[in-house]
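User: I've been trying to design a sequence by hand for this structure and keep getting stuck. Would you show me what you'd pick, starting by listing the structure so we're on the same page?

Assistant: Good idea, let's start from the same input. This is the structure you sent:
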């Protein structure tokens, strides 16, 4: 028989979560699940359980997923070269087709299935469904040291969200369904845009007036040059980390997303390690938050 003290300790864990449940009931949390974080099958299932638990306690979780490494493997199988500029994949027409196939097909449905297994009801969509995310070509600029100025770089069919029509998400919420969104946008002429999943999650979080944006990745959070976790960041901190080269690659769009989100009404954005089982629950429902919190 389990001893009474350990039973009480279990109940204490639930009681610790109570004020958070009361505070967050009815609020929308956007959770971005990165392609790197997905690689651990046990963490993938525990992620689905966390999302179902959020829904069960009255929070509205909206999942936006990535799949960069998985797109990379598929392109490799097809013998297509892929290149990144500041964490963004240069996307020609063929690459856009592959990105849509991998994101909206394989990955999206896998997450939907996991949420189903965990006892929830998820609906997998992309930014094309219900014209959820209208996009245009991203005009990207990169600093050219020789010229000492920012120069335009053509990234092909990389999109930036220009408008979010939240109607479909609202319908799904009313129906008790959890939206799972692939980061594909639609152009005015029906073209397919490959959108960085962090950017997509940030745009959706701002449009929904989400209370929190969580970005799940494969590091503990933002690390300083010594590899130590930075637990709290403000917009000036982020500008400094970018200027002194502490952040690079995929962390650049991630922190830009956090900045945009908190400057556009999202209360806080958190970067956390999605390889840790139940990372989302630990962050939301315990006193010891994990990861890097960005606030204005
Ligand atoms: N200062 C930093 N702290 C943490 N990670 C960083 C930093 N600078 C660059 N990175 C890189 O950013 C990566 C996370 O971005 P990304 O690979 O796009 O992840 P995801 O697929 O989850 O979106 C980390 O794995 C790490 O290699
Ligand atoms: C424009 C751009 O870079 N799009 C990304 C979309 C997927 C993504 O962002 O996935 P992660 O979150 O796993 O990195 C790509 O093609 O890889």
């Amino acid at each position: 028989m389990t001893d009474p003290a350990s039973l009480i300790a279990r109940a204490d864990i639930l009681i610790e979560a109570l004020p958070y449940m009361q505070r967050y009931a009815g609020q929308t949390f956007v959770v971005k699940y990165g392609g790197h974080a997905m690689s651990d099958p046990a963490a993938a299932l525990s992620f689905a359980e966390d999302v179902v638990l959020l829904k069960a306690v009255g929070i509205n979780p909206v999942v936006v997923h990535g799949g960069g490494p998985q797109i990379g493997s598929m392109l490799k199988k097809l013998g297509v070269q892929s290149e990144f500029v500041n964490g963004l994949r240069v996307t020609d027409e063929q690459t856009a087709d592959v990105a849509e196939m991998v994101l909206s097909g394989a990955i999206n449905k896998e997450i939907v299935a996991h949420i189903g297994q965990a006892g929830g009801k998820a609906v997998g969509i992309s930014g094309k469904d219900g014209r959820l995310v209208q996009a245009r070509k991203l005009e990207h600029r990169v600093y050219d040291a020789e010229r000492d100025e920012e120069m335009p770089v053509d990234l092909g069919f990389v999109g930036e969200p220009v408008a979010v029509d939240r109607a479909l998400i609202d319908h799904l919420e009313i129906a008790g369904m959890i939206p799972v969104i692939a980061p594909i946008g639609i152009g005015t002429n029906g073209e397919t845009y490959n959108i960085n999943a962090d950017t997509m999650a940030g745009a959706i979080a701002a449009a929904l007036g989400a209370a929190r944006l969580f970005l799940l990745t494969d590091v503990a959070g933002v690390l300083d040059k010594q590899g130590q976790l930075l637990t709290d960041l403000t917009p000036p901190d982020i500008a400094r980390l970018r200027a002194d080269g502490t952040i690079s690659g995929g962390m650049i769009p991630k922190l830009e997303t956090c900045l945009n989100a908190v400057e556009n009404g999202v209360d806080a954005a958190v970067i956390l390690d999605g390889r840790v089982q139940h990372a989302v629950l630990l962050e939301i429902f315990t006193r010891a938050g994990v990861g890097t919190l960005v606030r204005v």
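That's my pick for every position. To get oriented when you compare it with your attempt: Residues 26-294 form a domain with the Carbamate kinase fold (CATH 3.40.1160.10). The chain has a mean pLDDT of 94.
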